[in-house]
Amino acid sequence: MGLNVIMLGAPGAGKGTQAERFARQRGLAKISTGDILRSGVREQLSMALLAKTKMERGELVDDEPMVALVRDRLAQPDMDAGFVLDGFPRTVSQARSLDVIVEERRKGPLVVVDLVVPEEELVRRLAGRLICSKCGTNAESADGQGMTCRRCGGTLVQRVDDSEQVVLERLRVYSTTTKPLVDYYRGRPTFRTVNGAQPPERVALDMEATIDDAAGQVARTVLAAPGLSRR
To answer: Which entry of 21, 30, 38, 159 is annotated as an active-site residue?
Structure first.
């Protein structure tokens, strides 16, 4: 049975870092819609170019193209073992569409993890975050690595959507539009919260244990269903 994970949390909560780490450790495909869109802009793809202006203002891209983008990606062969989604869904409408996609796939449970970080810490993190101008990798400006990307050697620059004005707008959009996702998922047995204000290694350990517990609960429920044997 596959394993499918959604990473929720405000901008700067560490979703991308933790999603990439967990996906690598478990052999799952990591999907970042933000990375896909930015890559599409570099490649001059029409849908990504239409989304570019909204991204740079810190606004959300419309639901329909985002759902289509994710549906196409989840149909690829490397998705069979499962996936880790970072940056999608961002609205309740997108979440409902994802439920339909996951149900159609029938490839494992959907575990939802919400990384919780105080707002003042989010602002501090975003103000100091850099991105590689060549490969798009995120980096912390205060981590001692200078202005060179460790992955490809490219120059680190501030993301357009991490300027102070846009950061405040992104947090406002999250509070009013994306945060209702927590209410949408909260009642599910596979919904969990993790303290994202801890050191990254501690967050990673907590996240692994949390996801394993949620997936295990689904397996135990299936085994306990009437008519199923315990092997």
So the answer is: 159
